[in-house]
């Protein structure tokens, strides 16, 4: 098992202190992931910027949740699945959607299923999707902008999921009730 140091405002490198203060202000705590990322002010800033940009994308709260959790479960991230379950609850996303994503079962609507399937294809094929994959996505009502926004969400999740695997980041107290283990499919 590997671990990386988790910083607080006092122990963080100078370039990360203001970023951690912003995390504390925004979240009422410093998420463990942010504490780990603080070792490199550049990656912490990048992660926070990607998160902000993705939440400002054209996706609604259910679609944001589908992209995040599809990637989190595919990457088997012990930290991000519970965290995004809690975030989805705070965003008032129907818990049945969160449970479907956590359990890798059918999405509640055809459009969300298409987004889930397309996101998986982007991840599994490392972006090498076919024109048929794109056409199916477009037929569901999505467009080129949303193709690129899935990639934006993936960029954010690669930072967090990979970091959490290496750091073995403990799940934050508010999200421990949503603990999750990968279920092989």
CATH first level of the largest domain: Mainly Alpha
Broad shape: globular
In DSSP terms, counting alpha (H) and pi (I) runs of 4 or more, how many helices? 9
Secondary structure class reads mainly alpha
Give the number of DSSP strands.
Answer: 0
Count of the separate structural domains: 2
The CATH architecture assignment of the largest domain turns out to be Up-down Bundle
CATH superfamily of the largest domain, called what? AhpD-like
Outline the biggest β-sheet. none
Q: Which strand-content bin applies to the residues?
A: under 5%
- Ranges where pLDDT stays below 50 over 5 or more residues in a row are none
CATH topology of the largest domain: AhpD-like
Structure characterization notes:
By secondary structure, this protein is mostly helical. It has 2 domains: 14-54, no CATH class; 60-178, AhpD-like (Up-down Bundle), CATH 1.20.1290.10. Helix content is 63%, strand content 0%. It has 9 helices and no strands. Helix 3 (41-55) packs antiparallel against helix 9. The chain is globular. 38% of the residues are buried. The mean pLDDT is 96.
Task: Identify the notable features of this structure and list them briefly.
single chain; 185 residues; mainly alpha; AhpD-like; 9 helices; globular
Secondary structure layout plus pairing:
Layout: H1 14-27, H2 32-37, H3 41-55, H4 61-74, H5 80-90, H6 95-103, H7 110-124, H8 131-139, H9 144-167
Helix pairs in contact: 1-3, 3-9, 4-5, 4-6, 4-7, 4-9, 7-8
Give a quick precis of the structure:
The protein is mostly helical and 185 residues long. It has 9 helices and no strands. The protein folds into 2 domains: 41 residues, no CATH class; 119 residues, AhpD-like.
């Amino acid at each position: 098992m590997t671990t990386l140091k988790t910083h607080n405002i006092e122990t963080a490198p100078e370039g990360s202190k203001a970023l951690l203060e912003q995390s504390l202000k925004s979240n009422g705590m410093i998420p463990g992931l942010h504490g780990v990322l603080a070792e490199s002010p550049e990656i912490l800033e990048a992660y926070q910027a990607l998160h902000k940009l993705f939440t400002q994308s054209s996706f609604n709260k259910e679609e944001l949740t589908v992209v995040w959790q599809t990637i989190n479960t595919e990457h088997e991230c012990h930290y991000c699945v519970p965290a995004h379950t809690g975030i989805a609850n705070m965003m008032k996303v129907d818990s049945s959607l969160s449970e479907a994503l956590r359990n890798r079962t059918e999405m509640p609507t055809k459009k969300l299923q298409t987004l889930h399937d397309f996101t998986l294809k982007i991840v599994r094929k490392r972006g090498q999707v076919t024109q048929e994959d794109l056409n199916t996505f477009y037929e569901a009502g999505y467009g080129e902008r949303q193709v690129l926004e899935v990639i934006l969400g993936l960029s954010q999740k690669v930072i967090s999921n990979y970091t959490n695997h290496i750091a073995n980041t403990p799940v934050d107290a508010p999200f421990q009730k949503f603990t999750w283990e990968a279920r092989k499919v």
